[in-house]
Amino acid sequence: MRTIYTDARIFRGGRFETGEIAVEQGRIVPVGERRADDRIVRLGGRWLVPGLVDVHVHLREPGFPQKETIATGTAAAARGGYTTVCSMPNLNPAPDSPEHLSRQTEIIRRDAAVHVVPYASITVGQRGCGELVDFAALAPEVVGFSDDGRGVQSAELMEEAMRCAAAVGRPIVAHCEVDDLLHGGYIHDGAYCHEHGHKGISSESEWRQVERDIELAARTGCQYHVCHVSTRESVELVRRAKARGLRVSCETAPHYLLLTDDDLREEGRFKMNPPLRSREDREALIAGILDGTIEVIATDHAPHTAEEKLRGLARSAMGIVGLECAFPLLYRYLVGRGIITLEQLIGLMAVNPRRIFGLGGGTEEGDAADFTVFDLEAEYRIDPATFRSKGRATPFAGWPVRGRTVLTVVGGREVYDYDNCKFK
């Protein structure tokens, strides 16, 4: 039996068109003539887009189910409009061998509401140093290799990792941080830090390693992607790398686009790594989006327990959640203010991640039926108490937003349905 989604504004070929799409056996198929047994879903003029893709999500399982599980994290993803997420490797055990990776993939097969494509770690134990993993053994099951949460400190080790990743056709996805430049810091080394007696994280601790890695990528031919870019220097380095024709890309996150260290409060929900930076950094990130330097917006969804986030700026764990509020925040505060178009936002959150990371699904005929329907007229406030994620820490609590996920379809299956107030 086919399902036909009709009376929708459908994103195809980079633009919206009014029409309908048909789904059969998990794929987008030609609509053709109506059949007697067709199931018709009328969308009332809502906006149907390729399912959002988040290439930077912490699902915490195996190892830390008190923070998040694959079931709760992917339920949050479905509610946020995501049909694919890429799970980071800071787990226990770290996915540094096929045996350890299988612990995660077994749970994914059992519990995931959306597609979950894991990363393997770059180093054994995800330590950022020591011994490299067996890239060839892990490559068939992963989207790439990352030690997210730690920067690989040795240039020699990172160069060898890039050669190994290039040989198996997978990207290196790098958390860039020079340990020797941290000096115990935990928020941006700016005015708020100095005025309130905190320890600062310099911008150089990020961009210095971005600079090193770009040169290594040029030397090795490796596909290289920079995680959660937060500084103007990093944006400029990636811009120059692209101008050289290197296979370099990067992402930033909603909080770096909407907040600065001027917005900090003495609360753990404002603490993440990298930290909120300066106004000048935010302006550079937006410029990077507008000129195509930054091609991806990812959430860096990083849930922790309530107790871990209630210790203030100095002592709280690093990380905030974002899957359930990213799209409505960006729609209201970037699209709504005329900074970018809706089409550009869909590119950053759905189209570009698929292209860069070789992920499938979408709204074109023949695609796996992975798509999301938004009500762009819906207005409400961010309420962490309603989150499906176990994590509640967000600096956006109480913010008015616009745009709500009303339907998320993964492989033709309706996994989230707001109108019926249930997951399926």
Task: Provide structural commentary.
By secondary structure, this protein is an alpha/beta fold. Helix content is 29%, strand content 24%. It has helices at 70-80, 98-111, 135-138, 155-168, 191-195, 204-220, 232-243, 254-258, 279-290, 312-315, 326-335, 342-357, and strands at residues 3-12, 15-24, 27-29, 39-50, 52-57, 82-87, 115-120, 144-145, 172-174, 187-188, 200-201, 224-226, 248-252, 296-297, 371-381, 400-410, 413-417, 422-423. Strands 3-2-1-4-15-16-17-18 form an eight-stranded mixed sheet. It has a four-stranded parallel sheet with strand order 5-6-7-8. Helix 1 (70-80) links the parallel strand 5 (52-57) and strand 6.
Short synopsis of the structure:
The protein has 424 residues and is α/β, with parallel strands linked by helices. It is built from twelve helices and 18 strands.
Please name the defining characteristics of this protein.
424 residues, Urease, subunit C, domain 1, TIM Barrel, 2 domains, four-stranded parallel β-sheet, 18 strands
Gap between N and C termini: 18 Å
Instruction: Choose one word for the global shape.
Output: globular
Mean pLDDT: 97
**What percent of the residues sit in helical stretches (DSSP H or I)?**
25-40%
